[in-house]
Amino acid sequence: QVTLVESGGGLVQPGGSLRLSCAASEINIYDMAWYRQAPGNQRELVARITTTESTYYADSVKGRFTISIDYAKNSVYLQMNSVRPEDTAVYFCKATPQSAWRAVRRDAWGQGIQVTVSA
Fold it and tell me: Of all helices (H) and strands (E), which one includes residue 79?
């Protein structure tokens, strides 16, 4: 099964930028997504990119965050610009196998990485 490792989190000031990376053991057969979970809140979808590179963004991050994928590096990224204190959360990478692969592959999550937006 695929393994996912996030990196790039940390502390950033409001209005600043941060780039999260998710390195996958394989990526070509998965739709990839970033989720986040703030204390006391449910985990929510932030952005998703399919194998055809179609993208989806939550309204709260639209125009500020960009998801991208590099198949050569088996990595997916989340570029976070104009960050706000409410973006503070643990961010998780998720891999969802394409339907043709669901019999032999499962959804997978990374371990999560903390992003804190504060002055």
Answer: strand 75-80
